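Aim 2 progress update. The chain analyzed this quarter is reproduced below.
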Amino acid sequence: MSVRHNRPRPVDRRVRVQGQPVDSYPALPPEAERGSVRRITVVGEEILSRTCQEAAEFGTPELSALIDDMFLTMYVADGAGLAANQVGVDLRLFVYDCADEYGIRHVGHIVNPVLDLPDPGGRLLVDESEGCLSVPGATMTVPRTDRAVVRGLDKDGNPLVVEGMGYFARCLQHETDHLLGHTYLDRLSKRDRKDALRQMADRRDDVFAQRAIKAARLGR
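Predicted structure tokens:
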């Protein structure tokens, strides 16, 4: 998921890592410091349009390395979230580093996530601009609920519950959609989808160039 460009980032310094509050946290997560940049898949590639496989093995070096790579790849692409199929891996996993509307920064990963939305009477549907790292350069207004809960596991197989409000709730819904084989384009009308694809065609080269510059600055 792309970061918002129409609003400033919240300035509140509170942070929740894996759903738990922490006193402080670096701007670049430790996972990203260990990771390598991977290619981000683009809408139209088959892996983005099918349901990802559930993870069956936990606590492995391979899973930890994938999470590290996904964090760095997300950071280089200026993202707020990234699903495993966006780096070409067929696995129910996503990472995130996203601030909510209250200024709380949320950082973490979740494996085999299941989205739990509140009852219709207890949630608000919000229309807000949304982008996607796999639809480079395009942003469109997408309706999402203002609250969401995702239940799953961490990389070691421990139960995990992550709750989001506002923009972070949007991020949780966006990334869970990816693992079900959907991008935000699937939630648009035919006209708006064509508009988003036109935006991508016009801007993708510039987006790719900016990603390459940022990766080079990091020596990656």
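Strands lie at 15-17, 20-22, 81-83, 93-99, 105-116, 125-131, 139-145, 147-153, 159-165. The chain has a mean pLDDT of 93. These observations will guide the mutagenesis experiments scheduled for the next reporting period.
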